[in-house]
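Appendix C reproduces, verbatim, an entry submitted by the partner laboratory led by Prof. M.T., so that reviewers can inspect both the input and the predicted structure.
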Amino acid sequence: MARRTELWVTRNDLRQTKIVETEQEALEDGQIRVAIDKMGLTANNVSYAVSGEAIGYWKYFPAEGEWGKVPGWAMGDVVESRSDSISAGERLYGFFPMASEVVLQPGHVADDFFLDGAPHRAELPALYNQYRRTQGEPAFLKSLEDERCLLFPLFVTSFVLYDYLIDNAFFGAKQVVVGSVSSKTGFGLAHLLKNDPRVSQKIVGLTSARNVNFVESLNCCDQVVTYGDEGEIDPGLATAWVDMSGDGPLTGKLHHLLGGNMVESCIVGATHWEAERKRDEDLPGAKPSFFFAPGHIAKRDAEWGQGEIWRRGSEAGAEIAKSVSDQISVERVAGADNVAAIWCDMLDNKVAPTRGIMISV
């Protein structure tokens, strides 16, 4: 019988990995087996792992004991089917584990997507249970598989954040400060804000010194500030802080700098995943809160119709991807050992923002 290869990580020590090989299980009625072809490896994967307990990302593809399977956005092929609705040979795009294959259980099936109906996923955010059936998609979209795995999910998040700020009239802010703006979600948000003629707010990007040239080349910020120089941010302007870094002390520093002018404090990602998460409970200004993208998506689904914000976000993501494609070079990393190594490089912040890593276990 054929074997399945998976990369597991310790949930409380993300650098500790092991390669797990098991025999394929026989499919039950209604299930499909998907060979995972390629996955984008970005700071998004790290954020899924860091917030895996809090939001439930570890529960999509359960492992054993202290271990977890890091999920991400990937392309795969249906290689075996016992489903009446999904045939072998179909190509899928969606949320998969770092593995050579996975078994899914199609529930609700439409012409262009299906929802996984496995009981253990029923209470989890539905956004990650949706798998796109790509065979009927336009040729231009089929040609963007790497961008779809590397950039689209991040840029859709950028769009959701952008829409959240607009929906809330920027909470009265006159400037938006984006933490870890060199991250794809960060510069995607800055790009959307900077290129919207309706947005008059000043866009400030925070980044490390080594990424300043990259951020400036994107022309997505009115001001680029390096970590340690936060005093260059104008404290006299009402400010919305959108943090991709998850760095608690940095958030505290900015709150004390801005005081009552911190009118929104939104924690999105965890690019600085080892930084202290804890921050003072009693900070001046708006109370920091974790931004849960599926929550805003659900709000817009109710207002705009199911899937409309995802469609708009995907269109915006495609435009951003097109505008930055010449700044990002795609690299392919194959084999479980090599994937484990590049995963640790990502954790150690050794992957420059100009590199687009596609992995295949």
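The mean pLDDT is 91. Additional entries are available on request from the coordinating office.
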